[in-house]
Amino acid sequence: MVRLRPLLTLALLVLGLQPALAGAVDVIVNRDVQLPQISENTLRAIYTLRQTRWPDGQPIHVFVLADDDPLHAEFAKSLLGMYPYQLRQIWDQLTFSGMGQAPEQLSSQREMLRRVAATPGAIGYAAAPIGNEHVRLLPVR
Questions:
Q1: Cis peptide leading into 139, omega within 30 of 0?
Q2: For residues 96 and 87, is the Cβ–Cβ distance under 8 A?
Q3: Which of 30, 45, 61, 89 qualifies as a cystine partner to 51, CB 3.0-4.6 A?
Q4: Is 16 left (phi over 0), alpha (psi -120 to 50) or beta?
Q5: Rounded to an integer, what distance in angstroms lies between the CA atom of residue 31 and that of residue 117?
Q6: Do β-strands 122-127 and 135-137 pair in parallel, antiparallel, or remain unpaired?
Q7: pLDDT, tens only, 10-41
Q8: pLDDT greater than 90 at residue 52
Q9: For residue 26, what are the contacts with CB-CB under 8 A and spacing of at least 6?
Q10: pTM above 0.85, yes or no
Q11: CATH homologous superfamily of domain 20-137?
């Protein structure tokens, strides 16, 4: 795997994509979300579906990439302090018990940016730099 990492990074750069393995993942929200920042604990509560509304009462719409997407793995590990399989276990348990519904899984970062921009109350993540004025960065403190 050690030898594949430089090759994967190079391939992503050639394709014009920011490699998630570089370590910079930003939390993005729809422009109507009025929080100035978010704590790691609150972010974890949102992505483990324990917090389903913003402080103003608006429903939170959570978007994720596929479990095996490198950006999803980087997000889960660096910002949530979890592995993707741990998130999946939580989501599956809530879904199967009828207590919740897993976040909506999107196929690409481009779709993530588009859907977060178009969905009130939405939260997601993207590789930095974002360069999209239709979403807002939400600093994690």
A1: no
A2: no
A3: 45
A4: left
A5: 7
A6: unpaired
A7: 444 444 444 444 458 999 999 999 999 999 99
A8: yes
A9: 125, 126, 127, 128, 130, 137, 138
A10: no
A11: Periplasmic binding protein-like II (3.40.190.10)
Determine the pLDDT at residue 75: 97
Nearest alpha-carbon partner for 129 in 43, 47, 22, 12: 22
Q: Alpha-carbon dihedral of residues 102, 19, 128, 114, nearest 10 degrees?
A: -50
Asked if 49 and 62 touch (Cβ cutoff 8 Å), the reply is yes
CA angle 72, 28, 120 (to 5 degrees): 115
Q: Which amino acid is located at 109 in the chain?
A: Q
- Order of strands, edge to edge, in the sheet holding 122-127? 104-106, 61-65, 122-127, 25-30, 135-137
Which pair of structure tokens corresponds to residue 17?
């994509």
Helices (H), the chain: 4-14, 40-47, 70-75, 84-97, 109-118
Question: Tokens in use for 15?
Answer: 């394709």
Q: Domain ranges for the chain, please list them.
A: 20-137
Name the burial class of residue 100, with classes exposed (0-12), middle (13-18) and buried (19+) by CB atoms within 10 angstroms of its CB: middle
